[in-house]
């Protein structure tokens, strides 16, 4: 939980979303992500968003092999993010990588401020488990442990809430972020070829329009020969549910101009917050501490 109510941040800035192709070579993935951040920063972005599991193939078997111990400082992937944030003076929402901590593995997003400091670490809260006999089985919970915390960070580009992939399906989490004054929710995520076309855009728009804030998502580019085929279609959605920028299945770095004044305007025009019926329902944040 950010400690101060007031902090300085840019109200208008350029956001870059890096929908990267991921391969089996971790060093190569790190080099590739570094180049993407460089391109994004040189293109004038102040905030850079990376995909879910950008340093490894999205597979149960890969997670333990590619995992890094972030807290122990034994993490070439997050070191690169920190170095790039500092040298390019950008805020980075570092997608996610498999994180090793003690005997546990997490699906973890590191957030770096433009001074290279680690602002926060989101461990995917809702794990993706499917098991359709004879068809498809993917159980993150076979290998991963769920996080047990919300992640809200104050950055140079506003107050940002982070969720990973399946986390986007839970409106309570986004509502809690909105109640905590978040301007934008970033969801690195890799929806599949069924849920992608059915729900990916819908969920982003729903989270944005329900809460009247910005939503940005970043998927890996699609690799049809991968074990897990990602839908792609990373997007940036405005507080009226409008698509500000999006891409298709291929690798792409694309940009959106963010203006937080839009949040104020939409909330003034449609003051949902003042019209809620607290006598009929309440949002309860069970982890809130002052
Ligand atoms: C996932 O990994 C665990 C442990 O490495 C293994 O026991 C399990 O069979 C794997 N599941 C799938 C679907 O590959
Ligand atoms: C994607 O996941 C859903 C469950 O969330 C499952 O029903 C579907 O079969 C999966 N599709 C593919 C192509 O893996």
UniProtKB/TrEMBL annotation:
Keywords: Hydrolase, Signal. One of its GO terms (biological process) is glutamine metabolic process. The keyword Glycosyltransferase does not apply. The keyword Phosphoprotein does not apply. One of its GO terms (molecular function) is omega-amidase activity. Residues 1-18 form the signal peptide. Residues 13-260 form the CN hydrolase domain. InterPro entries: C-N_Hydrolase, C-N_Hydrolase_sf, Nit1/2_C-N_Hydrolase, UPF0012_CS. Belongs to the carbon-nitrogen hydrolase superfamily. NIT1/NIT2 family. This is CN hydrolase domain-containing protein. It comes from Selaginella moellendorffii (Spikemoss).
């Amino acid at each position: 939980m950010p400690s101060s109510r007031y902090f300085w941040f840019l109200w208008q800035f350029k956001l870059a979303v890096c929908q990267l192709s991921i391969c089996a070579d971790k060093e190569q993935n790190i080099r590739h992500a570094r180049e993407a951040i460089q391109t994004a920063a040189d293109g004038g972005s102040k905030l850079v968003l990376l995909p879910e599991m950008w340093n490894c193939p999205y597979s149960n078997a890969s997670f333990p092999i590619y995992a890094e111990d972030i807290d122990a400082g034994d993490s070439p992937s997050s070191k690169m993010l920190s170095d790039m944030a500092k040298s390019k003076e950008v805020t980075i929402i570092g997608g996610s990588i498999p994180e090793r901590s003690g005997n546990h593995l997490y699906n973890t997003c590191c957030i770096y401020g433009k001074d290279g400091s680690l602002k926060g670490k989101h461990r995917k809260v809702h794990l993706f488990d499917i098991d359709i006999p004879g068809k498809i089985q993917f159980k993150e919970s076979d290998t991963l442990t769920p996080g047990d915390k919300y992640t809200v960070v104050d950055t140079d580009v506003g107050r940002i809430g982070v969720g990973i992939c399946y986390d986007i399906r839970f409106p309570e989490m986004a509502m809690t972020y909105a109640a905590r004054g978040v301007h934008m929710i970033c969801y690195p995520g890799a929806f599949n070829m069924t849920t992608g076309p059915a729900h990916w855009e819908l969920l982003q728009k729903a989270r944005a329009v329900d809460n009247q804030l910005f939503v940005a998502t970043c998927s890996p580019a699609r690799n049809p020969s991968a074990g897990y085929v990602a839908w792609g279609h990373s997007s940036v959605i405005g507080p009226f549910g409008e698509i500000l920028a999006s891409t298709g299945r291929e690798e792409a770095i694309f940009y959106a101009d963010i203006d937080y004044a839009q949040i104020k305007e939409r909330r003034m025009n449609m003051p949902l917050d003042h019209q809620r019926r607290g006598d009929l329902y309440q949002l309860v944040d069970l982890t809130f501490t002052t």
